[in-house]
């Protein structure tokens, strides 16, 4: 630590003021057993008034002297924390005198340099972390995500996932956080890099085994009711083991999902055939459109594994999209090889859960609308304040 320069060398103030300034700093820094709270508070008010007229060097001297004390009056400490970064650094890095309300105020009223220090504190509460997440400041957000002493709320993580669309390198840090929930990870999948996508597919998707066992008798009850309850039907579709849409197969001009993909490989994909593949696979048109248009291709691996398609049909889908299977030298194309490897690594149950998360997030109750309002389908709002956490996450999936 650099040696603290004695303020008695200052030429801007008389000797009496310099001595008084020094005595007041010593007084407010006394341990709790040595001075009454009322006296300390009075001394802090006097010192604060002197600081308004002090030089930068004098304020820095004061901050360094109070760096480790917890007894100094809060008003005095709050003033120093909002001073120039050289002064605030002494206190914001380590001093534990500040509570969440103080730190949230500092986030709003200071600079990005101050916020960097707050994001790196030994402990960052959920309220402070959420306040930091409101701004699209890559350096601050990355430091917060790397901080093992920070606790990030669900709303804060929603904001981080949204920021990861634009801030490069944020998604790989978010995926390491224990606070991340599957719906957020699935939303972030679409704009993440390859390694992050693979981590999401392997770690965030559930197998649903317990849910299926717990709700096994409900399927029979829903069938007896003719699947008339749309909420129960939609929920059971997320839970059930089967992925393909059997009623769609009966109405389709193709004998099976496999045949539709074979035709696509020969003739190429047009919008009608792409939509038909989606129907046969049991997903919505917008979901299959997102999977087929995604340049990474991992969604194709998820689709094939979830619907029970064998390995050759992944190749057929790739050909249907007119994407290269090989390089000019005859070696396998690296992106297709990566997608094939992803297919092999995926478990069927987890692939189904992933596909259903994508599909389910686009259903009517997940669309942007007023929380708790009896709005008609399609009546979308435009303000984030009225969205629930799950609705905000759903909006991230396709940028809605």
Any chance you could write out the topology, listing elements then pairs?
Elements: H1 15-28, H2 37-52, H3 56-65, H4 74-81, H5 85-92, H6 100-109, H7 112-119, H8 126-133, H9 138-146, H10 154-163, H11 171-174, H12 182-189, H13 194-203, H14 209-214, H15 216-224, H16 230-239, H17 246-251, H18 257-267, H19 271-281, H20 285-293, H21 298-306, H22 311-320, H23 334-345, H24 348-360, H25 389-397
Helix pairs in contact: 1-2, 3-5, 5-7, 6-8, 7-9, 8-10, 10-12, 10-25, 12-13, 12-25, 16-24, 18-19, 18-22, 19-20, 21-23, 21-24
Can you describe this structure?
The protein has 400 residues and is mainly alpha-helical. 60% of the residues lie in helices and 0% in strands. The protein has 25 helices and no strands. Helix 16 (230-239) runs antiparallel to helix 24 and helix 18 (257-267) packs parallel to helix 22.
Task: List descriptors.
400 residues, mainly alpha, 25 helices, 60% helix, elongated, disordered N terminus, disordered C terminus
β-strand percent reads under 5%
Gyration radius (Cα, Å) is: 30 Å
Number of DSSP-assigned strands: 0
State the separation between the terminal residues, measured CA to CA. 51 Å
SSE class: mainly alpha
Secondary-structure element string: HHHHHHHHHHHHHHHHHHHHHHHHH
- What low-confidence regions span 5 or more consecutive residues with pLDDT below 50? 1-11, 363-400
Count of individual helical segments:
25
Oligomeric composition of the shown chains:
single chain
- Fraction of helical residues: 55-70%
Shape annotation:
elongated
What number is the mean pLDDT? Answer: 83
Instruction: Describe the largest sheet.
Output: none
């Amino acid at each position: 630590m650099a040696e603290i320069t004695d303020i008695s060398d200052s030429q801007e103030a008389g000797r009496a003021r310099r001595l008084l300034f020094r005595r007041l700093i010593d007084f407010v820094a006394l341990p709790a057993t040595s001075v009454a709270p009322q006296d300390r508070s009075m001394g802090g008010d006097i010192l604060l008034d002197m600081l308004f007229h002090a030089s930068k060097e004098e304020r820095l001297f004061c901050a360094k002297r109070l760096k480790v004390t917890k007894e100094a009056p809060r008003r005095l400490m709050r003033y120093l924390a909002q001073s120039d970064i050289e002064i605030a650094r002494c206190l914001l890095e380590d001093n534990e005198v500040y509570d969440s309300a103080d730190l949230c105020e500092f986030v709003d009223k200071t600079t990005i340099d101050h916020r960097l220090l707050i994001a790196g504190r030994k402990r960052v509460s959920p309220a402070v972390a959420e306040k930091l997440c409101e701004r699209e400041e890559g350096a601050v957000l990355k430091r917060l995500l790397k901080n093992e002493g920070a606790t990030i709320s669900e709303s804060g993580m929603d904001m981080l996932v949204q920021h990861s669309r634009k801030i490069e390198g944020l998604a790989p840090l978010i995926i390491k956080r224990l606070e991340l929930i599957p719906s957020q990870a699935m939303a972030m999948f679409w704009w993440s890099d390859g390694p992050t996508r693979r981590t999401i597919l392997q770690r965030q998707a559930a197998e649903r085994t317990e849910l299926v066992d717990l709700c096994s008798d409900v399927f029979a009850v829903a069938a007896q009711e003719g699947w008339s309850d749309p909420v129960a039907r939609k929920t059971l579709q997320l839970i059930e083991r089967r992925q393909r849409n059997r009623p769609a197969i009966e109405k389709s001009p193709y004998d099976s999902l496999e045949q539709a993909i074979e035709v696509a490989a020969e003739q190429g994909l047009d919008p009608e055939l792409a939509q038909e593949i989606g129907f046969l696979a049991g997903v919505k048109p917008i979901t299959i459109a997102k999977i087929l248009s995604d340049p990474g291709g991992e969604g194709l691996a998820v689709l094939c594994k979830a619907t029970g398609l064998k390995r050759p049909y992944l190749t057929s889908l790739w050909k249907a999209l007119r994407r290269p299977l090989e390089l000019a030298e005859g070696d396998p194309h690296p992106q297709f090889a990566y997608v094939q490897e992803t297919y092999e690594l995926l478990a069927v149950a987890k692939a189904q859960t992933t596909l259903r998360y994508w599909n389910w997030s686009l259903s009517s109750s997940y669309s942007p609308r007023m929380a708790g309002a009896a709005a008609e389908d399609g009546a979308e709002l435009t303000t984030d304040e009225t969205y629930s956490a799950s609705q905000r996450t759903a909006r991230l999936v396709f940028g809605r």
